Hints:
Blueprint: H1 11-14, H2 20-34, H3 40-49, H4 57-85, H5 87-105, H6 114-143, H7 148-175, H8 185-200, H9 232-235, H10 239-260, H11 262-270, H12 274-302, H13 304-321, H14 328-357, H15 362-369, H16 371-388, H17 394-407, H18 409-414
Amino acid sequence: MATEGTRTTTAREQDPTRGRWWLVGAALLLQFSIGAVYAWSVFGKALSVAEPFRLSTMQSALPFEVAIGMIFVGSYVGGRLQDKRGPRPVALLGGVIYGAGVILASFSRSQDQLWLLVLGYGLIGGFGLGFAYIVPIAMLQKWFPDKRGLITGLAVGGFGFGAVLTSPIAQRLIDSNKDMPTRAFLPLGIGYMLLSLIGASFFRNPPGGYAVPGFAPATGGRVIGSGREYTGKEALHTPQWYLLTALLTLNVTAGIALISQAAASATDIAGYTTAGAAGLVGALAIFNGGGRILWAVVSDRTGRMPAFAAMLGLQGICLLLIPHAGNMVLFFILAAVIYLCYGGAFGTMPATAGDYFGVRHAGAIYGLMILGWSLGGVMGPLIIASLIGGAKSYTLGYTVIAGIALVSIVLTVVTKIPRTRPDDREVPGSEFEAPGPGELAPAGRET
Length: 447
């Protein structure tokens, strides 16, 4: 009981992690809205057949490629700002920018206005997407130092699930006005903006920052992390940052090649109808989202690099087989595995970066690493679209992408966690034994 002149301790001060799971729900709400970008293949298909547009394969992929390319710019700016200003204002602004970009895209009315699609959906929407995307990842790692793999998987899982609801809704909106599919962007953009604002309004950092003393990333031998908190500049002076970014780039290149051509490939290879292909894209988004959670948890148990090796290997095998999958069920299974592994990289890499560089400056460090997402997001669709071409050479296209995935496994062998030097700044408390399950310990106040 508080005495005169003292202040009653609140429940939140007694347990600073109180209510942290509610933040996961808020993060998922934001990620659901911006993750709708993965439903693009539904629009790409519609824009290739609608009379006022009649876009080529390369043209219909352009807005999506630009959006993915702009994610790095947005995440870099948003990551640095959220480290300084906190998560809420950055996420709110990102949601507004993303929604506004999609709404602007709705005013494109013909092939001559492809530039407006690229500007709205690609440049503005992609920037807003990246600006908001990085925030819950950095924020939740601070709230859940004891569940780093799981929580980063959940933090980005909602993004992968975004297309699950969007694909069938978008297809219905397109079907209601087949000659002008871009009109679907108006109600969708408004909806995205509202969901983003509701979720982001609950964001906040923990009161001082938390870390589990002696935290050991789950791996075969319980390998200890780097034991220090790197700044963004310090991380860029390590070879590990570049190796991890390359690993993310190549995993994205492999998976997004199929994602960008999912609807068309399902129709041409396995005989899906247009409506069936749209439903397939929505169903596959479940695996994109689920993979982010599944592989993050797997990496806690097996280690980060073995998990990445498995993801790349499975993608490579499935990409070799998919152009020959004339059966609808077989096509779905192979595509589902690719989506599962593609999403897995996004669930696993934030935790990997936390193991290697710490979480205090996670916004800036992982925000920079998302360069790999943008690079892979541009390269994958460009390579596959150019190889498939008008002749629809799916075997050539997917075989080349499969080779990229399989060769990339080498990176998982050579990428090792940084070794600390005697003059390195260690995480406070890292010399002690890790607490029991569910226990947390303060790691000093955030700067």
